[in-house]
Amino acid sequence: MKYYTINKFAKIIGVTPQTLRNWDRSGRLHPHHTSTNGYRYYSEEQLCAVTGIQFAPRKVIGYCRVSSRKQKDDLERQVENLRTYLYAQGNPFEIITDIGSGIDYKKNGLQELIRRIEANQVEKVVVLYKDRLVRFGFELLETIATIHGCKIEIVDTTRESEQQELVEDLVQIITVFSCNLQGERAHQAKKMIRELAGDDSDDKVNPSTAVAEQQTED
């Protein structure tokens, strides 16, 4: 449910905030609730009742993610498990899938999800595990959702991360922070990346770390 401050609600329906205060005192229209500091808030249902405008119902969206296309089977299992869970809730839902790192915030599915949350089209986001949504920054995304009246539900609160995916995310993090390093620190960063990728030699270069090494040398 979305709520509006008295100023926002007044602007939408074309009256002044003082008019709404008068309506509250006279019993014509009470706010949905008043916060502990005395601020009045009005609901989307009240807006519909006053304006006669019916807004499209907000959706429940399930979100599933894997880090690479080779994890297609895992993605399908996530979708099936989440679909079973959401069917049991008895509410209409939609599922968005994504392929990409948990620290990549430009994935098409995640961008679409955030856009729809900000457009107040989402009632609840459901994910099987917290790190399926994002590896870092979950609290920020949760705050954005809350501002728009959207809840994020985690089905299983235990941590669920495949080791290879976690390693790939760690390599990306070290790569980002090592770009500006030089000399011995750059060498240590490259060595750490090699070790995470499973290559301890200084002579061989793992293809997955080639770009990282070039960046630290520049």
Can you put this structure into words, describing what you see?
The termini are far apart. The protein is of the alpha/beta class. Helix 8 runs antiparallel to helix 9, helix 8 packs parallel to helix 10 and helix 9 packs antiparallel against helix 10. It is elongated and about 70 Å long. The protein has 10 helices and 7 strands. The protein folds into 3 domains: 49 residues, Multidrug-efflux Transporter Regulator, Chain: A, Domain 2; 96 residues, Resolvase, N-terminal catalytic domain (Rossmann fold), CATH 3.40.50; 55 residues, no CATH class. It has a 4-stranded parallel β-sheet, with helices on both faces. Strands 1-3-2 form a 3-stranded antiparallel β-sheet.
Secondary structure elements and pairings:
Layout: E1 3-5, H1 6-13, H2 17-26, E2 33-34, E3 40-43, H3 44-51, E4 59-66, H4 72-89, E5 93-99, H5 108-118, E6 122-127, H6 130-133, H7 138-147, E7 151-154, H8 163-178, H9 183-197, H10 210-217
Parallel strand pairs: 4-5, 4-6, 6-7
Antiparallel strand pairs: 1-3, 2-3
Which properties best describe this structure?
218 residues, single chain, alpha/beta, Rossmann fold, Multidrug-efflux Transporter Regulator, Chain: A, Domain 2, 10 helices, 3-stranded antiparallel beta sheet, elongated, disordered C terminus
Short structural description:
By secondary structure, this protein is an alpha/beta fold.
> What is the CATH architecture annotation of the largest domain?
3-Layer(aba) Sandwich
One letter per element, helices H and strands E, the order comes to EHHEEHEHEHEHHEHHH
Structural shape = elongated
Give the CATH superfamily of the largest domain.
Resolvase, N-terminal catalytic domain
Largest sheet: 4 strands, parallel
Give the CA-CA distance, first to last residue.
51 Å
Briefly note the CATH topology name of the largest domain: Rossmann fold
The mean pLDDT is 80
Number of domains: 3
Poorly predicted spans: 200-218
